User: Which sequence fits this backbone?
């Protein structure tokens, strides 16, 4: 708990996680003395909230800082700046700032927030049986006797759709999809409220992706989980997220309800992302345009709006003045000077009012 | 669920146990015939060393001036040395010292190396910088002269709880350990560096597993295969180094026999009693070769990428 006299209650009683102006700079060092010659600004001033029971999708291209954001919230990394608030108790209870807590102080929070990793082939220790892997959270938190832990692992394996008989096997005996299910079981072992899913399906075959996504959706409903769903694949995010935040080079460029974002993006980058989603209909018109250029270098960010070198609507102001994330109608936010003027097209046809 | 239910369930779950890691490795190891032969020879050597007081035909220290430099005789199967001591008996007792030195230096050196390497690799940053520089420094020291100087300087140090006859053995073990941990340290550091970047380490940290537990329970077990191989190869190497030092007179001091110091005075009598040089040399050669074969076999058996 923070030592402040006034407990922080958060923006709303339902908020589970609040991130405020989060920053993570990785130093670029050189030579024997590890002289710092530059900073990679992986995450640079990101703010958002996640409500209890919600699934927030965090999308962006590779290297935009979305994974770093997920790892900062679960405190695998120590933030360079900013705050991370987490509500440990019931809705309305005070929120605690976990951004600079030490390992021991983080323990109660770690029980409540877990992470699922992208690569199921490196996220399970190859020398441990599934029983050992899934029961590790129980063992280090000293939950139950050995036998109770074993039964709990069996329950968890059933929950994620695996046969509990396999618990004495080693990870190499399982397929990618099965391994990812084991990763989910491990994350859920302590009944957390909040799960960061870091590209949980991007390493899987497409046919397996849907199974794992549906499992995660079902688990969310069944256990009342709150997700931060990190992905670069918009169709995946659309499937699971209630709300979506779009990141570009360490900053948020747009947040909106999932449906609204897909119907009418407000930021040109979001539009470009959507145009790149392949459509399953071969007769559908080809993508209207392809985003030119490369993602900006987070160690050497362009002046003004980071996206201006690639933006087809760019005006002179875009290269000099950085647009701030501002609130639009309907609780959406966007960081573009011309959000009101542009008429961008989304991936979904706008709903006609019936 | 009741307790009885839990029991039934837990038991049912245990039935599909995988073939254990050890059995898999053993099955693969057996296919390597030379490695198997090496293991049998090592097994024989170890039993001879352990049983030396029982099976040795003579007292290895007993001097018989009348029976100097004898060739093979019915009493002395492998002949006698320049003081009339039985070569076979000395060889058997020497095996105790040589194998003891080989094993203990390897175990201590590997343990020290694994510890330092794991810490350097896991914590990284300046910890890694300092440890790696120190490691490089130790590696650049010329081995043999250093061992000789240390051996000479420490030769007369008496060690508590160790009888004078064996103090030179203990000192030799310590010296060889302090100069022999760099290989394993470098090996483990590399392994830990690559393991650290895998997500299962991050998963442990997300669960709040302590650094110590991650190193001991997750990093080192995963680095075990190359450690075992390097240790096996190391035993043979350490026996050779011990022999070399003792041969030069800087290792284990006479009259305690080792394979190395049995070779000490043989140059002079090379033409009179060549068996004195032959048998200790053969013992060193066989042991070192056996450990190398076994190490090779283990390397193949422990490598999961190699389908056998």
Assistant:
């Amino acid at each position: 708990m923070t030592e402040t006299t006034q407990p922080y209650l958060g923006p709303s009683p339902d908020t589970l996680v609040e991130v405020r102006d989060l920053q993570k700079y990785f130093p670029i060092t050189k030579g024997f003395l590890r002289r710092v010659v530059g900073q990679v600004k992986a995450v640079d001033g990101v703010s958002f909230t996640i409500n209890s029971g919600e699934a927030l999708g965090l999308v962006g291209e590779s290297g935009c800082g979305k994974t770093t954001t997920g790892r900062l919230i679960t405190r695998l990394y120590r933030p360079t700046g900013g705050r991370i608030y987490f509500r440990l108790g019931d809705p309305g209870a005070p929120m605690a700032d976990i951004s600079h807590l030490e390992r021991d102080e983080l323990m109660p929070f770690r029980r409540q927030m877990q992470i699922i990793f992208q690569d199921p082939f490196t996220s399970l220790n190859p020398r441990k049986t599934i029983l050992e892997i899934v029961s590790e959270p129980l063992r280090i938190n000293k939950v139950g006797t050995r036998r109770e832990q074993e039964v709990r692992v069996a329950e968890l394996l059933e929950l994620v759709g695996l046969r509990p008989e396999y618990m004495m096997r080693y990870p190499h005996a399982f397929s990618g999809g099965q391994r990812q299910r084991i990763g989910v079981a491990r994350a859920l072992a302590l009944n957390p409220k909040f799960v960061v899913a870091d590209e949980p399906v991007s390493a899987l075959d497409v046919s397996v992706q849907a199974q794992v996504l549906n499992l995660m959706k079902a688990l969310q409903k069944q256990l009342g989980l709150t997700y931060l769903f990190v992905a670069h694949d918009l169709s995946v995010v659309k499937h699971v997220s209630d709300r979506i935040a779009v990141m570009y080079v360490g900053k948020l460029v747009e947040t909106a309800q999932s449906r609204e974002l897909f119907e009418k993006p407000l930021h040109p980058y979001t539009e470009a992302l959507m145009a790149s989603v392949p459509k399953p209909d071969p007769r559908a018109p080809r993508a209207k345009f392809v985003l030119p250029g490369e993602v900006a270098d987070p160690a050497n960010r362009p002046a003004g709006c980071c996206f201006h070198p690639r933006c087809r609507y760019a005006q002179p102001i875009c290269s000099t003045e950085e647009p701030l994330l501002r609130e639009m109608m309907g609780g959406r936010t966007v960081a573009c000077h011309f959000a009101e003027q542009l008429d961008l097209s989304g991936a979904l046809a706008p709903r006609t009012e019936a | 669920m009741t307790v009885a239910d839990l029991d039934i369930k837990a038991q049912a779950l245990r039935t599909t146990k995988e073939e254990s890691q050890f059995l898999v490795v053993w099955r693969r190891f057996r296919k390597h015939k030379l490695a198997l032969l090496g293991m049998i020879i090592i097994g024989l050597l170890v039993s001879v060393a352990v049983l030396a007081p029982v099976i040795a035909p003579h007292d290895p220290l007993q001097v018989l001036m009348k029976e100097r430099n004898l060739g093979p005789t019915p009493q002395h199967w492998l002949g006698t040395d320049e003081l009339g001591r039985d070569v076979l008996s000395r060889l058997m007792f020497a095996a105790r010292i040589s194998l003891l030195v080989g094993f203990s230096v390897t175990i201590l050196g590997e343990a020290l190396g694994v510890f330092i390497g794991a810490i350097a690799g896991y914590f990284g940053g300046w910890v890694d910088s300092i440890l790696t520089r120190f490691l490089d420094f130790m590696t650049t020291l010329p081995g043999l002269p250093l061992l000789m100087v240390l051996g000479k300087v420490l030769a007369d140090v008496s060690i508590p709880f160790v009888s004078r006859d064996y103090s030179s053995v203990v000192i030799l073990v310590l010296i060889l350990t302090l100069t022999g941990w760099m290989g394993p340290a470098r090996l483990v550091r590399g392994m830990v560096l690559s393991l650290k970047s895998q997500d299962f380490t991050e998963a442990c940290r997300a669960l709040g597993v302590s650094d110590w537990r991650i190193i001991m329970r997750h990093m080192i077990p995963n680095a075990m295969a190359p450690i075992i191989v390097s240790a096996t190869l190391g035993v043979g190497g350490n026996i050779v180094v011990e022999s070399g030092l003792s041969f030069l007179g800087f290792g284990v001091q006479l009259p305690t026999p080792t394979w190395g110091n049995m070779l000490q005075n043989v140059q002079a009598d090379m033409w009179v009693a060549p068996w004195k040089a032959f048998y200790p040399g053969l013992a060193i050669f066989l042991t070192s070769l056996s450990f190398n074969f076994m190490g090779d076999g283990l390397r193949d058996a422990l490598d999961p990428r190699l389908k056998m």
